[in-house]
Amino acid sequence: MFAENIICFIIYLICACIMFAIGFSQIRSKKPVGFYSGEKPLTEEKLTDVHGWNFRHGVMWIIYGFIIIFSFIVGFFVGDSVWCIVPFCGGLIIPIIIMIFYHHKLIKKYMQ
Q1: Which of 21, 18, 20, 40 is nearest to 31 (CA)?
Q2: Long-range pairs for 1-5 at CB < 8 Å and ≥24 separation?
Q3: Backbone phi and psi for residue 111, each to the nearest 5 degrees, phi listed first
Q4: Is 56 helix (H, G, I), strand (E, B) or coil?
Q5: pLDDT tens for residues 10-57?
């Protein structure tokens, strides 16, 4: 039981670190960043504020990394019941849907 939790935590931590890396690289980027949804990033000419665009996208990914870690903690306390799927869905899947809507809101806000 203990080893399984450690392995699960390491997997969640690796995923969260990937999200942190994406977020920090987007914040530091000088060129407009994409959402990683298959669409090409907008060009600098189409954006009103490249720094604001990159910053908000980067923060979005960093928050997602923290949500991943939080979902592990909640799942750890829920235990080995069937209810452990709730933090998994709530912490990994639902935020992606919210991020997609937020990305479209940012397009409307920053596109000329």
Answers
A1: 40
A2: 1/80, 5/76
A3: -85, 135
A4: helix
A5: 999 999 999 999 999 999 999 999 987 778 888 999 999 999 999 999
Question: What own/partner pairs with CB < 8 Å and gap ≥ 24 does 96-100 have?
Answer: 96/64, 99/35, 99/60, 99/64, 100/35, 100/37
Ramachandran angles phi, psi of 33, nearest 5°: -100, 160
Is residue 47 within 8 Å of 112, Cβ to Cβ? yes
Three-class SS state of 34? coil
Q: For residue range 45-91, list pLDDT tens digits in order.
A: 999 999 999 999 999 999 999 999 998 888 888 877 777 778 877 88
